[in-house]
Design a protein that fits this description.
155 residues; mainly beta; 7-stranded antiparallel beta sheet; 2 helices; globular
Length: 155
């Protein structure tokens, strides 16, 4: 994870997700009640009911997080909540989901950053080193790669 900007007095950090392990950290950093500003897409109806066209547009919105879920394959975090700030086309107070995945930039705002949350953030932004382990027992061998959230058996 890349920390672009931080202002802990205001409770704001701007982050970029750089790899799949960052997704796991986000599930521990984002809590219900936090404000997240990010890019999302939404279908909008243009025109009156008879001649309405549906258009998918990209927007930047700020939502108040209610639920934080890791998707099925672990490649993204889905944050659901009500929109607190956005463009005119989207009414405030409606529900919207932000999907945070590799390459995404977003702003996370908390009322107060607790010390363990700052520590997790620092841990997530440090360079990660992976180790290749080989366990050998007579005629069998096991190769595994260490990760921040555990390990992955290669063969």
């Amino acid at each position: 994870m890349h920390l672009i900007h931080s202002d802990f007095k205001k409770g704001i950090v701007k982050l970029r997700v750089t790899d799949s392990e960052d997704i796991w950290y986000l599930t521990h950093l984002i809590d219900p009640g936090d404000l997240i500003t990010g890019k999302t897409t939404r279908k909008l109806k243009l025109g009156d009911s008879e001649n309405a066209k549906t258009v998918k547009k990209a927007f930047t919105v700020k939502i108040e997080a209610e639920t934080v879920q890791l998707n099925e394959n672990g490649s993204a975090v889905r944050v659901n909540g009500k929109i607190t700030k956005g463009p005119e086309e989207i009414p405030q107070g409606v529900y919207q989901a932000l999907e945070l995945q590799e390459g995404e930039e977003f702003i996370l705002q908390k009322v107060q950053w607790l010390s363990y949350q700052k520590q997790k953030l620092q841990e997530a932004t440090e360079k990660k080193y992976s180790y290749l382990l080989c366990l050998f027992d007579r005629e069998e061998a096991l190769f595994a790669l260490t990760k921040k959230k555990g390990f992955q058996i290669l063969t």
